[in-house]
Amino acid sequence: VIAHRAPATVRLGGGAVARAGDAVRELGGRRALLVTSLGMPQRPGFQRLLDSLAGGGATVEVWAETPAEPEASDLAAAVAHASGFRPDVVVGLGGGSALDLAKLTAILLAHGGPVDRYYGTGRLPGRGRPTLLLPTTAGSGSEVSHDAVLTDRAAGTKRAVKDPHLVPSCALVDPELTWTCPPPLTAASGLDAFCHAIEAFTNPRADALTDFYALESMRLIRDHLPRAFAAGDDAPARAAMARGALLAGLAFAAVGTAAIHACGYPLSGLWGLPHGVANALMLPEVVAFNAASCGKYRPVASLFGGEDLPGALRGLLRSVGLPTRLRALGVSCDSIPRLAEIASRDERHLSANPRPVSRGDLEGIFERSW
Ligand SMILES: [Fe+2]
């Protein structure tokens, strides 16, 4: 029987960002560290958040240096920036990278670093500073999940801290924050959310709640991702995507993700592919591999009106401008054995796959995706 964990407060809907000041006050915060991404301060949502925090009486220090696919050195920089300020709450604004960095900053401010000693499952000594998270993509689900991921380029992969102590204190999911999310990031983060949903749905430990969240999430993404990609200010499409990504986050938070993520991590670690793009490219062939032993793909296939689920998923990728082949992104064929070797060591993800997958199987999946 699995545990469902979520922030004590989740607000979903247009204008939720205006509740940030109240949320910080409810968390007992007076001094808020805002962790966000490069470029975010130029976007209108950033100012709306600052106004709300100021209205709630909080003093705010901004760290807007989160790069794409951040590493441990970025986390150390955020913590160093924060230590003189002594924040009593950490606010994260951005995509999964900024939100994960905010969550880990809150841990390191309370318990010290370096982060290496927390990699793995259940290794945190306790909760960190309270966290308030506002996603600007739809999305990573990081605003509700209890894991956080950093890229380790030396190891050629991503590494995760997974622990119930990492459940955020409060999530404000405001679809209006995603209106300025550019089309390529809308596509990549939307496909990442779809991968969260399908991998949670087919997890051997899935229960009635994960099924409910995940299937609805996939339906919403199927209907609304192409529209949100085509017109960023399509308010109903953005609202539906915010809902879909949140549901996917709630689903995978409970059971984790699987072989798609095991394959995606080394594509980011070795080739620098954005997490969502890496997963999107692996999605059709991992599903094709699993199909023989995964009856739960039947309701997913019927969402797409047919039998050929991998083909339908390739169509979804194409509809949002994503390539369907690794070679189109400059990944060399020679690196496939190394990609498969790194992925094969990812026991956490592979054990959650609906079909057992060997190193040789992984090599075949990468080859067919190439
Ligand atoms: Fe993901």
Please supply descriptive tags for the structure shown above.
single chain, 370 residues, alpha/beta, six-stranded parallel sheet
Describe the fold and architecture.
By secondary structure, the protein is α/β, with parallel strands linked by helices. The protein is built from 14 helices and nine strands. The strands form two sheets. Strands 1-9-6-4-2-3 form a six-stranded parallel β-sheet, sandwiched between helices. It has a three-stranded mixed β-sheet with strand order 5-8-7. The longest helix is centred in the middle third of the chain and has 23 residues, at about 210-230. The radius of gyration is 19 Å and the shape is globular. It starts with 8 loop residues before the first strand and ends with a helix. The model has no long low-confidence stretch (mean pLDDT about 95).
Chain-wise SSE layout:
Blueprint (H helix, E strand, L loop, with lengths): L8 E4 L7 H7 L4 E7 L6 H12 L3 E8 L5 H12 L5 E6 L1 H16 L8 E2 L9 E5 L11 E6 L4 E6 L7 E4 L9 H19 L6 H23 L4 H21 L3 H13 L3 H16 L6 H7 L5 H11 L16 H9 L2 H4 L8 H11 L1
Parallel strand pairs: 1-9, 2-3, 2-4, 4-6, 5-8, 6-9
Antiparallel strand pairs: 7-8
Helix pairs in contact: 1-2, 3-4, 5-6, 5-7, 5-9, 6-7, 8-9, 8-12, 9-11, 9-14, 12-14
Give the strand tally: 9
Number of helices: 14
Distance between the termini: 38 Å
Note the main sheet.
Answer: 6 strands, parallel
- List unreliable stretches of 5+ residues: none
**Can you give the helix content as a percent range?**
40-55%
Strands across the major sheet, in which order?
1-9-6-4-2-3
Mean pLDDT: 97
